[in-house]
C-alpha cells in the first residue's frame, strides 16, 4: 500500500549568508583538485569497541558530457544491537551544484526494516527532490520541486564533504558562514559552520594536530543536528561524530599526505573477503531483487493460466511414468507443441548428451 504526492515549493525560503556565497565563488579549481581523494574510518562506541565502517571518496567524473565530481560516502554498522547504515552517491558541478544525488538510510529492527531514500536530480531550471519512506505500514512517496533560482548557497549532504575538506585546508572559517541545506524532511533549512580550533589526537602510535569544524543543520521544525569533524592539515578526515550519538567515526592509521609526498608511492590495502550474506546493504538488495523476481514470475503465471495447467500435466505424467531418461521424455511430451521443430531437435540432443555425461 503506497501513498504518493507531489508538492511544488513556492513559499519564501531562508537565504544563505553573503560570506557563504562569496566562499563558493572564490573556490578555485586547484582548491577542489587537492580534495580529490578517499577517506576510510571505523565506527566505534564510547568504550572503543568497533561497530562498523565509514568511507567517503571524491573523484573526477562526467555527467551528461559535463565535467563534474563524483562522491560516494557510506556508513554501515551495528549500534545498540541494531544494524543500520547510510549511503550517498552524487554528481556535483565544479561549483558544488547538485546534478544528481541519491541518499539511502536504513535501520533494521527486530521485526521490520525502516528505509528512507532521497533522490535529487536537476531538470531544466528546477531541482526535483523525491523522498520515499518504507515502513511496516507501507510506502510513502513525496516529490518536491525547487526553482534553481531559489537554491543559491545550497549545500547538499554530498557537497558538504567537499566544503569541509576545503575549509579544513584553509583553516579559516568566515564569520556568519550560513549555507542552505535539506533537513530530514527534504525541506530547505539553514546550515551553519564554525571553527572548533586545534586539537591533538592520537592516530595509531602518533600524536597529531587536527583542525575541527562544527556543522549544524537547523530544520524548519526548530530542531537541529550538529556534527563535530576534525581534519589533518591536508584535509583528511580524522574523526566525525554527531552530537548525541553513542558512536563516532575515527581514523586508525595515518594516510599518505597529499602535499609534499612521493606521488609514485602507492598505498597497499588489505584485501577483505566479501561475505555478502553478512553485509546488510547487499543482503537488503538481494531480498529486494528476490521479491521483484517472485512478483514478476507470479504475475506472468497468473496472466498465462495455460502455463500452470501445462506444467501440472507434465509433472503428473512424469511421476506416473517415472522414466529413466527425463530429457527424452520431456522432448516427446512437448514435441506436439513445437510446430516448427522437426524430430531430432539439436537443442534437445545437446541437452541429452550433457545429461548423459553427468
TrEMBL record:
SUPFAM superfamilies: Dimerization-anchoring domain of cAMP-dependent PK regulatory subunit
Gene Ontology biological process terms, A to Z: actin filament polymerization; cilium organization
All residue ranges annotated as the Ciliogenesis-associated TTC17-interacting protein N-terminal domain in the record: 19-246
A Gene Ontology cellular-component term: plasma membrane
Pfam families in UniProt: CATIP_N (PF21772)
Keywords: Cell membrane, Cilium biogenesis/degradation, Cytoplasm, Cytoskeleton, Membrane, Nucleus
Family designation: Belongs to the CATIP family.
Entry function: Plays a role in primary ciliogenesis by modulating actin polymerization.
Superkingdom of the organism of origin: Eukaryota
PANTHER family in the record: CILIOGENESIS-ASSOCIATED TTC17-INTERACTING PROTEIN, RIIA DOMAIN-CONTAINING PROTEIN 1
Stated name of the protein: Ciliogenesis-associated TTC17-interacting protein
Chief site of localization: membrane
Compartments, as annotated in UniProt: Cell membrane; Cytoplasm, Cytoskeleton; Nucleus
Amino acid at each position: 500500500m503506497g501513498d504518493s504526492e507531489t508538492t511544488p515549493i513556492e513559499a519564501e525560503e531562508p537565504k544563505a549568508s553573503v560570506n557563504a556565497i562569496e566562499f563558493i565563488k572564490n573556490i578555485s579549481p586547484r582548491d577542489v583538485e587537492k580534495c580529490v581523494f578517499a577517506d576510510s574510518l571505523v565506527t566505534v562506541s564510547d568504550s572503543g569497541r568497533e561497530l562498523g565502517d565509514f568511507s567517503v571518496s571524491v573523484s573526477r567524473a562526467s555527467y551528461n558530457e559535463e565535467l563534474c565530481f563524483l562522491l560516494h560516502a557510506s556508513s554501515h554498522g551495528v549500534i545498540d544491537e541494531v544494524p543500520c547504515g547510510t549511503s550517498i552517491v552524487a554528481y556535483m558541478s565544479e561549483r558544488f551544484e547538485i546534478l544528481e544525488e541519491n541518499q539511502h538510510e536504513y535501520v533494521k529492527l527486530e521485526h521490520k526494516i525502516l528505509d528512507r531514500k532521497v533522490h535529487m536530480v536537476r531538470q531544466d531550471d528546477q531541482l526535483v527532490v523525491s523522498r520515499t519512506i518504507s515502513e511496516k505500514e507501507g510506502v510513502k512517496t513525496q516529490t518536491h520541486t525547487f526553482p534553481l533560482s531559489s537554491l543559491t548557497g545550497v549545500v547538499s549532504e554530498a557537497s558538504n564533504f567537499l566544503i569541509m575538506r576545503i575549509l579544513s585546508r584553509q583553516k579559516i572559517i568566515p564569520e556568519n558562514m550560513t549555507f542552505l541545506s535539506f533537513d530530514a524532511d527534504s525541506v530547505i533549512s539553514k546550515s551553519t559552520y564554525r571553527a572548533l580550533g586545534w586539537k591533538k589526537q592520537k592516530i595509531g602510535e602518533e600524536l597529531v594536530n587536527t583542525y575541527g569544524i562544527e556543522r549544524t543543520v537547523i530544520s524548519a521544525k526548530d530542531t537541529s543536528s550538529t556534527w563535530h569533524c576534525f581534519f589533518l592539515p591536508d584535509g583528511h578526515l580524522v574523526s566525525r561524530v554527531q552530537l548525541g550519538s553513542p558512536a563516532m567515526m575515527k581514523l586508525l592509521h595515518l594516510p599518505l599526505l597529499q602535499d609534499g609526498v612521493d606521488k609514485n608511492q602507492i598505498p597497499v590495502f588489505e584485501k577483505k573477503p566479501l561475505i555478502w550474506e553478512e553485509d546488510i546493504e547487499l543482503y537488503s538488495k538481494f531480498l529486494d531483487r528476490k521479491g521483484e523476481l517472485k512478483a514478476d514470475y507470479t504475475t506472468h503465471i497468473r496472466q498465462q493460466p495455460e502455463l500452470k495447467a501445462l506444467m501440472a500435466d507434465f509433472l503428473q505424467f512424469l511421476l506416473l511414468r517415472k522414466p529413466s531418461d527425463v530429457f527424452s521424455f520431456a522432448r516427446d511430451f512437448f514435441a506436439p507443441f513445437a510446430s516448427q521443430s522437426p524430430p531430432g531437435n539439436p537443442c534437445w540432443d545437446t541437452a541429452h548428451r550433457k545429461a548423459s555425461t553427468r
